[in-house]
Design a protein that fits this description.
The chain has about 110 residues and is an alpha+beta fold. It has one helix at about 1-25, and strands at about 30-35, 40, 45-50, 55-60, 65-70, 75, 80-90, 95-100, 105-110. The chain binds copper (II) ion.
Length: about 110
């Protein structure tokens, strides 16, 4: 009985794992980021899953440059305009998003 119970636990855990890894990746994800004063970003911790097709829209109230590290994507912002970049989140990790001219960390992009 115990052996059967252990097997059932493994089967259920395996099923959950497969569900978690297959059902959430490769989705279309749109992230809208609002940058104010070159110092703050909302939301400041956007997330995606590996292989998601990510669209990032950056709106800033200040001219400047937003740099997504790791993916090395640059948004050359003009006050009040929205900039869009599309890419596949092929790398996992925690990637800083920076206001380039001052090196201020606006937040993190997390890919799991
Ligand atoms: Cu940078």
């Amino acid at each position: 009985m115990i052996a059967v119970g252990v097997v059932i636990v493994f089967v259920v855990a395996g099923g959950i794992l497969i569900y978690a890894t297959t059902s959430h990746s490769g989705q279309n994800v749109t992230i809208n980021l609002n940058v104010t004063g070159g110092t703050k970003m909302n939301p400041d911790n956007p997330t995606a899953h590996q292989n998601d097709k990510v669209t990032i829209n950056v709106t800033s109230d200040t001219d400047g440059e937003v740099h997504l590290h790791g993916y090395d994507i640059h948004f050359h912002t003009k006050a009040g305009q929205t900039l869009t970049q599309k890419f596949t989140a092929d790398k996992t990790g925690d990637f800083p998003i920076e206001w380039e001219s001052t090196g201020t960390e606006l937040g993190h992009f997390q890919v799991t």
